[in-house]
Amino acid sequence: MQVRAIRGAITVPENTKDAILEGTRELLHEILNRNNIKQDDIISIIFSMTNDLNAVFPAVAARELGLTDVPLMCSNELDVPGSLKSCIRVLLHLNTDKANSEMKHVYLRNAVVLRPDLAGK
C-alpha cells in the first residue's frame, strides 16, 4: 500500500458556523465518495480557511461525520492579495493501492477556479 494525498476546496456563502460546517461536510462527502475511501484508510486531514472565515474549526464537521480516530489539523490560508475568499481547503492523506493518477481531487462551488484543469473529471 502507498500513502497518497487528495486535495479539495469549497467556498461558503458567509462566515457562520452553519455555513462552514455544511460546506466542509459537503466537501468531505464528495472526496470520500468519489474516491471510495474507507475511514480506516485515512491517515490525517489538514484543513485551511481563508482569513475571512473564523466562526468554527472545519475539523468539527469531520468529527461530526464520525472521523473520531483520524488526526485533524486546522490552519489559516496565506492571505495573498486577489486570492479567492471564503474558501475552505482540504489535504487528505490516505493509504491506498491506487496510483496518484487515480486520485480524484474535488473542487466545489467557486473553488473550481483554483483547479480549472480538474473541472469535469
Any overview of this molecule?
- It is built from two helices and five strands; from the N terminus they run βαβαβββ.
- By secondary structure, the chain is of the alpha/beta class.
- Strands 3-2-4-1-5 form a five-stranded mixed sheet, with helices on one face.
Q: Which terms would index this structure?
A:
alpha/beta, single chain, 121 residues
Count of individual beta strands: 5
The dominant shape is globular
Strand order of the largest sheet: 3-2-4-1-5
Order of helices and strands: EHEHEEE
Oligomer: single chain
Q: Which percent bin holds the helix content?
A: 10-25%
The secondary structure category is: alpha/beta
Distance between the termini: 24 Å
**Rg result:** 14 Å
**What amount of the residues lies in strands?**
25-35%
Q: Determine the mean pLDDT.
A: 96
Topology:
Layout: E1 2-11, H1 17-34, E2 42-49, H2 59-64, E3 72-76, E4 87-96, E5 106-108
Give a summary of the structure in a few sentences:
The chain is built from 2 helices and 5 strands. The protein has 121 residues and is an alpha/beta fold.
